[in-house]
Amino acid sequence: NAGVTQTPKFQVLKTGQSMTLQCAQDMNHEYMSWYRQDPGMGLRLIHYSVGAGITDQGEVPNGYNVSRSTTEDFPLRLLSAAPSQTSVYFCASSPDRFGTEAFFGQGTRLTVV
Amino acid sequence: KQEVTQIPAALSVPEGENLVLNCSFTDSAIYNLQWFRQDPGKGLTSLLLIQSSQREQTSGRLNASLDKSSGRSTLYIAASQPGDSATYLCAVMNRDDKIIFGKGTRLHILP
């Protein structure tokens, strides 16, 4: 049982490049979410999904897109990377949104130069 | 807009002491509150989950309480050990389906 898997673990991008951060879970969880963690800022919610085909914006959605075509996968797309998007990104999943434990991936450390 | 605050931001205590970490939130319309631990450079590990209808949860030396009406939660760590050194984060799951985190408390247990 792999849990929540994020790839890649590290990435360096040039300003203006695009890329997709992958997140996959094998627990058949309905709820998935993306966060960024910056020093002194805690984790901030970027986008979330309560089920396949449904996505919504979190606290800091600008510059990021998501899709949820399957229950298992929830990729995060940076369309045109900016230095302000340098951060550590975490993906999480939970069985549902009503009161169940959230499980986190190990994170992707992204640097935009 | 939900805001989650954790006090203190950092804490150092001698090994063996009991300690309390605090978390407050502004909107009581939540499904649950969860406490996490994060070691440097690592992901988050769930410690305790308290449903909105519950008052407390216990796991080993950890006890978390929830007072939804006052918007407060505490994480009590008994007989602290150097291995407890980490950042502790609390997060609430709002009824608008958003999980909002506090900024965390950095805990250092002195041997």
Quick synopsis:
Chain A has strands spanning 4-7, 10-13, 19-25, 31-38, 42-51, 54-57, 64-66, 76-78, 87-94, 103-104, 108-112. With 113 residues, chain A is mostly beta strands. Chain B is mainly β.
Question: Mind sketching the topology for me?
Answer:
The complex is a heterodimer of chains A (113) and B (111).
Chain A: E1 4-7, E2 10-13, E3 19-25, E4 31-38, E5 42-51, E6 54-57, E7 64-66, E8 76-78, E9 87-94, E10 103-104, E11 108-112
Parallel strand pairs in A: 2-11
Antiparallel strand pairs in A: 1-3, 3-8, 4-5, 4-9, 5-6, 7-8, 9-10, 9-11
Chain B: E1 4-7, E2 10-14, E3 19-25, E4 30-38, E5 44-51, E6 56-59, E7 62-67, E8 72-77, E9 86-94, E10 99-101, E11 105-110
Parallel strand pairs in B: 2-11
Antiparallel strand pairs in B: 1-3, 3-8, 4-5, 4-9, 6-7, 7-8, 9-10, 9-11
Mean pLDDT of chain A: 94
- Main beta-sheet strand count, sense and barrel state of chain A: 7 strands, mixed
Instruction: Estimate percent helicity of chain A.
Output: under 10%
Low-confidence stretches of chain B: none
In N-to-C order, the SSE pattern of chain B is: EEEEEEEEEEE
Structural class of chain B: mainly beta
- CA-to-CA gap between the ends of chain B? 41 Å
- What is the residue-mean pLDDT of chain B, rounded to a whole number? 95
Estimated share of beta-strand residues of chain A: over 45%
* Range of strand content of chain B: over 45%
Rounded to the nearest angstrom, the distance between the terminal CA atoms of chain A is 36 Å
Supply the number of helical segments of chain A.
0
Shape of chain B: globular
